[in-house]
Amino acid sequence: xxxxxxxxxxxxxxxxxGSADAGSMKIRHPLIELSIAxxxxxxxxxxxxxxxxxxxxxxxVVLGFAFRTPPEGQVIEPGMRYIDFxxxxxxxxxxxxxxxxxIGYAVVDSRRRRLLRRFAVTPMRRSHFLLAFxxxxxxxxxxxxxxxxxxxxxxxxxxxxxxxLSVAVLSILGSFSFAGLALLVGSRTESTExxxxxxxxxxxxxxxxxxxxxxxxxFPDIVQPVLRxxxxxxxNDSMRFVINKGGSIMDMALETAVMILWGIATFALxxxxxxxx
Amino acid sequence: xxxxxxxxxxxxxxYRDILAVDSLSFEVFAGECFGLLGPNGxxxxxxxxxxxxxxxxxxxxxxxxxxxxxxxxxASVRERMGVALQETRLPDRLTVKETVRxxxxxxxxxxxxxxxxxxxxxxxxxNSRVQKLSGGEKQRLALCCAxxxxxxxxxxxxxxxxxxxxxxxxxxxxxxxxxxxxxxxxITTHYMEEAARLCDRVGIMDNGRMIALDTTQKLIESxxxxxxxxxxxxxxxxxxxxxxxxxxxxxxxxxxxFAINVRGLDAVLRSILDELGRSNTDFMSVSTHxxxxxxxxxxxxxxxxxx
Lengths: 277, 307
Prior knowledge:
The complex is a heterodimer of chains A (277) and B (307).
Chain A: H1 30-43, H2 46-66, H3 82-112, H4 115-120, H5 126-156, H6 164-185, H7 192-209, H8 224-228, H9 231-243, H10 253-273
Helix pairs in contact in A: 1-5, 2-3, 2-5, 3-5, 3-6, 3-7, 3-9, 5-6, 6-9, 6-10, 9-10
Chain B: E1 4-15, E2 18-29, E3 33-37, H1 44-51, E4 59-64, H2 74-78, E5 81-84, H3 96-105, H4 113-119, H5 135-147, E6 153-157, H6 165-180, E7 184-189, H7 192-198, E8 201-206, E9 209-214, H8 216-221, E10 227-233, E11 248-254, E12 257-262, H9 265-278, E13 283-290, H10 293-301
Parallel strand pairs in B: 3-7, 3-8, 5-6, 6-7
Antiparallel strand pairs in B: 1-2, 1-4, 8-9, 10-12, 10-13, 11-12
Helix pairs in contact in B: 4-5, 5-6
């Protein structure tokens, strides 16, 4: 037999509004609670953990060793080797991949599970729900980027010549632009297959054209402006500038603007066309 | 004059070619449990979604606690609502407690997490992940999330579909307790016995329309019969045979099966069997049962009630 405890009801026996959290558990702001829930879900997903943390390191190690030997008779200084070029590119790729999959897939899955509708009938602010995805990503960003930098430094002697603060700010900006893009990709569809297709369609051109594995200067001049306006290009270029050349984010106004613009535009559009039902 | 908590007037909603809800009007009074009953596809869930502010009607008016959906005060009405939707799958990898916490954070007032877990007897499972829960436990968790705000109105869309009898009983007790303390409940179900047990008033829906609305008692009384005799025949039966028997209140024919509403079971059954014998009508089975809401549906639609 189940008995409803009347302790939180009003005096006349109507259910009414109870006391604000009489229990021992402190409930935090919805944005924080949602972000924590996202973090927990991610940590308990071994597959996602591998793709975000394990795979990029594996890729760095394999590629780093494969392209280790300089051409005959040449001595290449640290800072000019392929691995020096590669590490910042892999950081960019990883930020893009983990943001896109981590957010886009989760949003579509929540819609498929009818969870979005369930949230939509609560007083939850919709912007909180979407921002929580971005906030929970930021926590992982430190580990993701840190791990790649650490492996680059310990295994291949790739140092960060610029400031770590610049690296951190660039990572956040990159993450922001891809979070918006991911929300946009996941804003309407209910099918994870359709979302995966779109996610690949958005990412593959940047895998190739944004200078992650090889310089995009190899592409014809006519497409250069387009490539430079891609968020991953902006992230990779500015990361390399800071890590390899010791530059500061202050000298990367165009790249910074490109990332912020992508973030704001995609976030705003996603909010507008987002389908909760 | 009773206070109206939910009101809808000539609500219609079309999905492609189908009129899912067809000029529906009814009121739910404060403190009552109102049931929308009907087979799958009757339009119950669509009606529910419109009332919850999840879907918009093509025409008609809705008010919940005197509020119309679609403006800035939506959140203040949602503060006072508890909802269990059909087929919400809560995140698999969160625990019971973590899930309720998230929902608690959306409301400015409400119960503590411990209190709702207690109410639904989920204390022992509070650290289990959602994916490990049984169907009944998942549904209880859904009710935890609905009750966490200590709502005035509870919207329950088929809360016990697919559950075993024990799990169903638990949910019924919680709903009854909520209602006994003055809460208003709007529930959809395709289980007649659920509606009969929980609801003060029942609206029977079919093809998007409300075909009857009253208390369970009055709906059953409307047939003016106490029992139903169901006869399955080999090759049908000449209905004229039955025309002189007193106590027959209505006959619904479905193929070669006849459902006969009667008053005074003993006498009528004897007379019917006599007539069948005299006319050499072959029958495969005869069964009787007291009148239920299901028979009201059959009588109104001429169709068998299918879940």
